[in-house]
Amino acid sequence: MNTLPKSLKNLCAAAALLALGSASAATVAWADWTSLSTDLKSATGTMGGVGVTVTAANAMNGVSQLSGPGNCTNYWTQGTDPAYTGGSVSNAPTACEQLGLNVANRITVNFSSAVSVLYMGLLSVGQNGLPVTYSFDQAFSVDSEGDGFWGNDATDGVQAGNNLTMREFHGVVRFAAPVTSVTFSSGAENWHAFTLGSGTVPEPTSLALVGAALLAAGAAARRRQR
Q: What's the start-to-end Cα distance of the chain, in Å?
């Protein structure tokens, strides 16, 4: 019986393990918000080892964890159609960690070092009869959306260029290029919130190419042994 050389078998096994790893979702370091200015126009936190600074044109609507341990409600919950873990993310944003908004605003976020893959968790943005649009200064993609604390956006969010119009949207958007800052504007409604996180995105396509190359090498080896 013709068999693959041991070295090629080992390479194939390694590629298989990598492919299995790539199928798993990314663990995201969601922001730990640590301070909010008295005028509610700036906030700071950490995102893994990265510092985060948020500045707003108008007052924000607070961060619930500053009310003290045990005094907050975890709004980052999801239903059978998961809002936050239905895409490339394995863990929902941290309980009680968010920045709230209610008036029309323009938000700028700066990071202490470049973030290779930036995630933004969005919470209850817009209402069925009151859509809210986030307009970003750079390209993004919707990583996941679904059932959240206050239901689901029947339209799943409508993206047009760098704008996302939402009607009770719970989900995650992703910025894939290395990001040092991001700016967005938002409309007014009763209350909605966001948070930020850093992570990595699996690259199954690249690993599939490696696996294909190894299979081709294996086939060539078998032909030489005939």
A: 10
Q: 17 lies in a domain?
A: no
Residue 90, domain member (yes or no): yes
- Other Cβ atoms less than 10 A from the Cβ of 138: the count is 13
- Name the residue among 174, 103, 116, 187 with its Cα closest to residue 145: 174
How is residue 86 written in tokens?
């239905």
pLDDT in tens, 148-195: 999 999 999 999 999 999 999 999 999 988 999 999 999 999 999 999
Contacts of 128 by beta carbon, 8 Å cutoff, 6+ apart: 154, 167, 168
Q: Which of 38, 44, 57, 42 is nearest to 188 (CA)?
A: 57
pTM of the model: 0.79
Domain coverage including residue 87: 25-201
